[in-house]
Amino acid sequence: MSPDISLPVSLAGRSAVVPDADALVLADVHLGRAAASSVDAPLPDGTDVLDRLEELLDRTAPETVVVAGDLLHSFDRLPRGVERDLAALESAVADADASLVVTPGNHDTMLESVFDGTTATEYRLADGETVVCHGHERPSEDAALYVIGHDHPAISIEGRKRPCFLYGPDAYDGADVFVLPAFTRLAPGSTVNGMSASDFQSPLVRDAGRFHPGVWDADQAEALWFPPLEECRHLL
Questions:
Q1: What is the pLDDT of residue 25?
Q2: Which of these, 29, 61, 75, 88, is most buried using a 10 Å CB contact count?
Q3: Separation CA 18–CA 55 (nearest Å)
Q4: Residue 19 contacts by C-beta under 8 Å, 6 or more apart in sequence?
């Protein structure tokens, strides 16, 4: 079912690699989500994030790691363990000889109190053509490609819900838009099958039907892409 589309990025788990910029991009890490929940025995989300990030760093060896917003989860407090988990994440990136950049999202109101690294509302990658931002606001920078997060896209295939990527060629003012799934595995995700543009929170999604959904197949270590939503909704 995978259509013949030319992607400006390559995929790795719940993240994307922009080869021409030597950059690894992930979004919606939401450190502290488990601790902020009401679950009696929350999952160790920081450990899970770190383990998967270290595997990605080893596999992709990027020069730059960009978090496209919502590195943190809580708006007004820092749950126990967040500072430790963030320090471990920073160390992992540094140990991989990469630099870390965060483009703050709407959840990152406490970021300045715990992160003194590089931040930018919109970050232009080394290829000069790609801009990374969280996606909750309209970008001010022009780009050929915007890589965003924010909506936590997921897709239901034969009744099974899975995190997905969305790729919209020429979807925003002549630019391509690439939407990442949430990197945290604690986010349930927004099922895109029946969603229209008004159901998305990001203003960069103006016509949901033209976006191709893609699912990462961990067993085959490859992405499975579908035709645009307007063509394949009834098949899923």
A1: 98
A2: 29
A3: 17
A4: 9, 10
Across 164-221, the runs of DSSP E, i.e. the strands, are 165-172, 175-179, 190-191, 212-217
- Domain residues of the chain, as ranges? 10-235
The answer to whether the beta carbons of residues 179 and 148 sit under 8 Å apart is: yes
* Range 68-78 burial, b when 16+ CB lie within 10 A, else e: bbbbbbbeeeb
Q: 166 with 212: CB under 8 angstroms? A: yes
Q: Which CATH architecture has domain 10-235?
A: 4-Layer Sandwich (3.60)
* Region for residue 87 given its phi and psi (left: phi exceeds 0; alpha: psi -120 to 50; beta: otherwise): alpha
Model confidence pLDDT, tens digit, residues 122-174: 999 999 999 999 999 999 999 999 999 999 999 998 889 999 999 999 999 99
Q: Is the dihedral of CA 190, 29, 6, 171 positive or negative?
A: positive
For residues 67 and 27, is the Cβ–Cβ distance under 8 A? yes
Q: Are β-strands 160-163 and 153-157 bridged in parallel, bridged antiparallel, or unpaired?
A: antiparallel
Strand, coil or helix: 10: strand
Q: Please classify residue 36 by burial: count the beta carbons closer than 10 Å to its beta carbon, then call 0-12 exposed, 13-18 middle and 19+ buried.
A: buried
pTM score, whole prediction: 0.93
What pLDDT score was predicted for residue 43?
Answer: 62
Q: Which residues of the chain have pLDDT under 50?
A: 39-41
Q: Which residue has the tokens 């943190």?
A: 72
CB 236 within 8 A of CB 156: yes
pLDDT at 41: 46
